What does this fold into?
Amino acid sequence: MGNRRRSTRLQQKLMDAETSSISRAPNHETREVIKQPTSLKEARDRTNQVINEKKRKLEEYEALMVVLQVRMAVHQEKRAMLQENVNLTKKELHAAERIKETTSNAKAKVKYYTTFTIRRDPLILHHLYNLNYSITEKVIQFKSSCDKF
It folds into this structure.
């Protein structure tokens, strides 16, 4: 049964090839039956039509390539800007770590001096608290500037 179907398909294809040529569209979804030309003028016209279609498609592909090149350039520019932002962020994080270390050292000094030696002197105690407050304020300002990025 299968061989009989195969042979009938082959016979049908041979008959189609004798009467007309079958060409597939580039996306292989539709088939178009083209009749054999009967005169030299028809053959020339069809050849010119095919050539014009190919030229039109080539122009479309070239225009598409230009669009893709522009998109690629924009993408590369955005990528470079993001890379710069990442590098800046790394530098800012490193600076924030240094400020944090300085703050923790200052707070430790404030605690040390207030608990052991200078607890009774209100003027020195006031200066130490102002120092602690100003360092904390600088850290808050720096963190808010980092959040803007």
User: Anything to note?
Assistant: Residues 126 and 132 are 10 Å apart (CA to CA). DSSP finds three helices and two strands in the chain.
